[in-house]
Amino acid sequence: MVLVNVSYNDPDRWRQVHAVSGAPLPFFASFFRGGRGSPAGRFLDASDAALKSLLEPGTADVRVNFERTSEGAILYFRALLETWAIPLRRGATTPKRVGECLELRVEGETVRLDVPSGRIEQLEQWLNKVL
Fold first, then answer.
1. Cβ atoms of 96 and 105 closer than 8 Å
2. Backbone Cα Rg of the chain
3. Domains in the chain, ordered, with CATH?
4. What is the predicted pLDDT for the residue at 57?
5. Please, are residues 100 and 120 in contact by the beta-carbon 8 Å criterion?
6. pTM score over 0.70
7. Rounded-to-integer distance, Cα 43 and Cα 33, Å
8. 84 three-class SS
9. Which of 59-96 are b and which e, b meaning 16 or more Cβ less than 10 Å from the residue's Cβ?
10. Cβ(76)–Cβ(83) under 8 Å?
11. Nearest 5°: phi and psi at 72?
């Protein structure tokens, strides 16, 4: 799983993100595909050690959003006053509902998200369509 700090407008970091997830969709392309964004969620847990260190108890309420791209999506979140991105490639990421949580399998790692009730179905459908 690729984890990139995108707080600064560094072209090399964005190239690293877009190499996995594809380029952002232009406005009209995203409009005709149903928009760029998704329902928001909240991190619960992760199996990746670097990501888990960002989700320590001091940063317990970490919100996540997704952006649709040409080859998948980008998961964005803020932790430790920085903005982070996890690029997700279509076909390499599997969303799965586990009780009232949503679990993403990304390159052998697991990310668990809490989604407000009523929105879990929307996010699950959105991810299944995009990924």
1. yes
2. 14
3. 4-130 (2.30.29)
4. 61
5. yes
6. yes
7. 26
8. strand
9. eeebebebbbbebbbbbbbebeeeebbbbbbeebbebe
10. yes
11. 160, -125
Q: How far is CA 49 from CA 13, 45, 46, 74, in A?
A: 20, 11, 8, 19
Distance (Å, whole) CA 38 – CA 16: 22
Please report, in tens digits, the pLDDT of each residue of the chain (131 residues total). 899 999 998 999 999 999 999 998 887 777 676 665 677 889 888 898 888 888 776 666 788 999 989 999 999 998 888 899 999 999 999 899 988 899 999 988 999 999 887 888 888 888 888 88
Q: In the numeric block, which tokens belong to residue 117? A: 């009730």
Residue type, 94: T
Pairwise CA distance, residues 64 & 115, whole Å = 10
Say which amino acid occupies 112.
R
In terms of DSSP bridges, do strands 93-98 and 82-89 run parallel, antiparallel, or are they unpaired?
A: unpaired
